[in-house]
Amino acid sequence: MDCGRFDPSGFKAAEPRVVAEVPSPSTRDYDAFQRLEEYKAVPSIAHILLVEPNEAEVAMWSRDADGSWQASRVRGMEESPSLPALEVTLSLAEIYDGIEFPEIRPRLVLGGRP
């Protein structure tokens, strides 16, 4: 979600507030480590979501008022994580609407539990 001025010829968000990423098998480690740190370095970003493609699970980082990051993880279709910086709540049931999960579910590896 970009809260900055719209630039029709721009290639990146002017003032991103939320990043939601679904890691693919080929980029999973990069997304969970290096890209995560790159996102955290962008001052306007308040929430980072890594959406697990193989089950109803979202790893979430939220920036506090003092600028520090708090990690959390939500699992299950009945969960609804809150994004306070945007004053919205997301329903995992809506995020995963129409998705059929595979029988074998590799886990999102994040270098420790968020």
Strand content: 15-25%
The CATH homologous superfamily of the domain at 18-95 is called tt1808, chain A
Number of helical segments? 2
Described by the principal axes of the CA atoms, the overall outline is: globular
Total beta-strand segments: 6
Helical content (DSSP H or I, runs of 4+): 10-25%
What gap, in angstroms, lies between the N and C termini? 22 Å
Cα gyration radius (Å): 15 Å
Classified by CATH, the class of the domain at 18-95 is: Alpha Beta
Which CATH-level-2 architecture of the domain at 18-95?
A: Alpha-Beta Complex
Quote the CATH topology of the domain at 18-95.
tt1808, chain A
Question: Can you describe what's shown?
Answer:
The protein has helices at 28-40, 92-95; strands spanning 18-21, 47-51, 57-63, 69-75, 82-83, 88-89. Strand 2 and strand 3 (57-63) form a beta hairpin. It has a domain at 18-95: tt1808, chain A, CATH 3.90.1570.10. It starts with 17 loop residues before the first strand and ends in a 19-residue tail after the last helix. By secondary structure, the protein is an alpha+beta fold. The strands form two sheets. The chain has a four-stranded mixed β-sheet with strand order 1-2-3-4, covered by helices on one side. Strands 5-6 form a two-stranded antiparallel sheet. The model has no long low-confidence stretch (mean pLDDT 83).
